[in-house]
Design a protein that fits this description.
By secondary structure, the protein is mostly helical. It has eight helices and no strands. It folds into two domains: 75 residues, Rna Polymerase Sigma Factor, Chain: A (Orthogonal Bundle); 65 residues, Arc Repressor Mutant, subunit A. Helices cover 68% and strands 0% of the residues. The longest helix is centred in the middle third of the chain and has 23 residues.
């Protein structure tokens, strides 16, 4: 694909990229910045794009990774520097890292709800939460990446519906 064709196809994705950026940021100005960052990275890394593959998916991945990296960077820069006498904030008790019985029960309930999903949605969902990439899931299950994304989306949606009625206090 020539540079002109690449640029034309990339600019034709503007509405889709802006919509996706809005779902990530929920802020119009941040979404515009994210789209611009995505365009810059896509143009800079054009040589890494393989012809006859999905440009939209490629740019969405760039956008998602850019958003995640920006978020992580903002968390690091928003760290609290404790200037109080006796380091009051730093000496506040932290969580022990040990699950309480309530949280363990809640984890069991969530796992039970996940297990209740149809295997068609549960298997890709579990693989995704275990860290498998969409492509790896698609190859493993011998289905298209779009089908993988759809099943994960609808599995997550069904799980959220099932969890909404869940009472954690038992």
């Amino acid at each position: 694909m020539t540079a002109i064709e690449f640029n034309h196809k990339l600019t034709s994705l503007q509405d889709n990229l802006h919509y996706f950026a809005m779902t990530l940021t929920s802020n119009h100005e941040e979404a515009k910045d994210l789209v611009q960052d995505t365009y810059i990275k896509a143009l800079t890394n054009r040589d890494k794009f393989e012809d006859n593959t999905n440009l939209k998916a490629w740019t969405f991945t760039i956008m998602k990774n850019t958003f995640i990296n920006n978020y992580r960077r903002s968390i690091r820069t928003n760290a609290i520097i404790d200037t109080t006498e006796d380091l009051y904030f730093l000496n506040l008790p932290k969580e022990s890292g040990i699950a309480s019985p309530e949280s363990e029960l809640s984890h069991k309930d969530v796992k039970k709800r996940v297990d209740m999903l149809d295997s068609e949605q549960r298997v890709p969902f579990e693989m995704h939460t275990q860290g498998y990439k969409y492509k790896e899931i698609a190859e493993s299950l011998r289905i298209s990446i779009g089908t993988v994304k759809s099943r994960i989306f609808f599995g997550r949606k069904k799980l959220m519906e099932n969890l909404q009625g869940m009472n954690t206090s038992h």
